[in-house]
């Protein structure tokens, strides 16, 4: 009987030893500063769904919108140190760290929103992603382009209307220099104070994409929206290199594949949002103008030398953009 009990105990221990230990799922947190209806959120959620399927639940992804993990600059620094797993961010917020990306703030670098999308989704954009590992980040793909034009309290029918105009711009060297060259007065204003600044006349205009103008409520206060298209602002999906390198090879492959698919979904979503935004602007009584962009382009070129000086490899990148444009 004692031998039988010992045999049973041995068999039981063998079963436990042979049973696989269920490991805790890998958790990836994605931070961004835009809202629940933004292309950033769409990309993050699509990535989460894809990762769950590709890894059979081995990886769980959570998306944190509205700056709940911090502002863009904090997210970028967090990714570099490994504190933040991943983020979706606008290119200007990377310029202080990744100086090569300053070239993307050249005014009228691209001829159109559509052209910017095609080039950034192609070999030129892929090459720019390869710059990130030396800054301890991994680029997973370029997302929606934000076509920046003028949301204003007064009409901007031509470039003459830009003279002395107090314009709130992104605090990026390229954006500041561009609007100086256009004759405007770049005016620092916290984004949270922008609505009141426009309403109270502290500033005359802001460079915003039409979908951002609608989505963040500025369509309720502005009177005019002028399609100057000075900048095409690209967004991108980034992961901490330290975190990426710590994952098993199969998870890394799933991240690469899911990242690309997620950003394609973001581009498609952004295309629709951009088209819908003009309908909303019209419905709210905003006067939409299409000034001749030629004088704007000519004036803005004066900002190029200063911006190019601050962008390592800028001339080479511009040449590649030109080559890609000719192939279209």
Name the CATH architecture. 3-Layer(aba) Sandwich
Structural class of the secondary structure composition? alpha/beta
Largest sheet: 9 strands, mixed
**Highest CATH level, the class:** Alpha Beta
Number of strands: 9
How many helices? The count is 13
Low-confidence region ranges: 11-22
How much is the average pLDDT?
91
User: How large, in whole angstroms, is the Cα Rg?
Assistant: 24 Å
Q: What pattern of helices and strands is seen along the backbone?
A: HEHEHEHHEEHEHEHEHHEHHH
Record keyword descriptors for this entry.
328 residues, 9 strands, 19% strand, globular, D-Maltodextrin-Binding Protein, domain 2, 13 helices, single chain, alpha/beta
Question: Could you walk me through the main structural features you see in this protein, from its secondary elements to its overall organization?
Answer:
This protein is an alpha/beta fold and 328 residues long. 45% of the residues are buried. The longest helix has 35 residues, at 249-283. Strands 1, 2, 3, 4, 5, 6, 7, 8 and 9 form a nine-stranded mixed beta sheet that branches. Residues 11-22 have low confidence and may be disordered. 45% of the residues lie in helices and 19% in strands. The protein has helices at residues 2-18, 39-54, 72-81, 113-120, 123-129, 173-181, 194-199, 210-215, 241-246, 249-283, 293-300, 304-309, 314-327, and strands spanning 26-31, 59-64, 86-90, 137-152, 166-168, 185-186, 205-208, 224-240, 287-289. The protein has a single domain, classed as 3-Layer(aba) Sandwich (D-Maltodextrin-Binding Protein, domain 2). It contains 13 helices and nine strands.
